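Review box. Two proteins, two foldings.
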Amino acid sequence: MPSGHTQQDAARARTTGPRSLAPIPFDVEAAFPELTGTSRAVTLLYPRAGQPGPGDSSIGGPLQWPAYEPWPMCAEPDHYKPLDLPVGPEPVAMVPVVQLYARDVPGLVFPAGTDLLQVLWCPLVHEDGQYAASPRLYWRSAALTAAGAVTEDPPRPHTADEDFLPRPCMISPTPAVEYPNWDLEGLGLLLSERFEAMQEERGYGYFEVATTQQSKVGGYPGWTQAPDWPDCAGCGARMEHLLSVTATEPGMGRWLPLDDWASHQDQVAAPSWLAEADPVALDAFGHEMALGDLGGVYFFICRTCPDTPYTHRYDC
């Protein structure tokens, strides 16, 4: 083991390193030439319940928070808890949602001088047209943040919508390639009959083996409804998909990591699109946020404008 590393470090690396996935069972662009050039690199996060620390990449875990910066509070007048009385004027503490270190997500391009991404949100529904949690995004230097990080626990929200409270999860950033799902738009109609023929002939479909709807960095947003790509308010250009935080995680099929397959399945011979998860392992899958009704929150940035402006979309 390299000098300076402990057995605990090695165990953590085994837990949070990239997962092994079955290969896609067909050549997408050979079968559907119309999709040539539409593939995108994606990093699948695979959140699993655990005990991440401030120095870990995580979903719902503690953040490495700088002591010079107050913990963010939401005092927006339009937040409310569904099926309850309005919250009132008392500010609500925001909750950690995502923390990503550059070392763990090589496919994520960080703004100059930063190597740590943090996302928090107010865990209440906001009547701002999205009807979802209200997020904030921070790019930081990990070294500078760690040098002056707070040691006490952050404040907790005095009230919250359970749909937007993640349980702490370690993540396993796994590089992959995917093709468009809802973003097919007109192409989807053109190819629908051939997609159905593939399903009948081969036992698997394009959408289940070539597209993903799970928490991820890059790639295509994990839409559950029609796409709603934002344009940058500064330059007018379409913004780049940065991150999807979704309520759905694969519990079966080709995107289920090999080491999560049920123990009775032969990982070599069994078709990946028929894979089922080990029932015991399923309890640890995902951050347990329903996000409305198996929906997602999608983050977008503009890399052209100063300060890397961001926005989000929500569907359920």
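Next protein.
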Amino acid sequence: MKELTLREIQLMGLEILKDVHRFCVENGIKYSLLDGSMLGAVRHQGFIPWDDDVDVIMPRPDYERFCRTYQSDSYRLKYRGNDKSCTIAFARVYDDKRTVMKTKLPWCTGDVGVWIDIFPADGALDDIGQHRRYYTKNRQYWLKSCRSREWEYVPYQYFKTIPLMSNFKNYVRTWMCKFGVTHYYIRQMIKRGRAIPFGSTHYWTQMMCMGDNSQEHNRMETFAECSLMPFEDTQVYVMNGYDEVLRGKFNDYMQLPPVEKRVGNGSSYIHFYWKA
């Protein structure tokens, strides 16, 4: 099998995004690009040249309706509601006809190919101090879920290289993960996200994937309306308050980062290949 190039991954993600956009428009589901994808739309009118994924966000009610009802002739959706093997707290729409992922650290069972991420937007506590404490607790669950997922898939041969007592402790930890510790953390994240309904406060946040610990605390007005914006060869929705949201996350977001930081989010342990 031939491995996909960065541009091929982008173009496959773009096709999935177009399909998600089609479904959302037809069914009145609100969405916006998020994070690097939103920045790409604003600054590059498409992908950030070195970015390798697509991020979409929906208010939690729209997200849950999308997950229950999404249908496509070309792509599939996975989230914990339809696949309990998922070790992520959000959804992914993926291709499984033309591409396949190879990894030592899977996020679900079964074959999946190139995907785009679909995140729920949840309410955030109005008091910034309370929000930070709440967000930090959820991030701790997220970090523990990532760590336990790694332990679940560590080859047992690794343990032969470390002392006997550590070997035993790590063996026990690995089997604890296999029997559901990772899924416990994921369930807690989702439960805490749903506990503050979107629109019940004056702020919203994204707490289901928190790699950069930005502790997002966005005014509800920023996501009140969305407008079409050029993205590659199509148009997709971006929240009207994108400037405030991007400045809160990236500061002077129109300034290109140093050359050494122009790298994608792709991991060395995830590779995509064209199916034969």
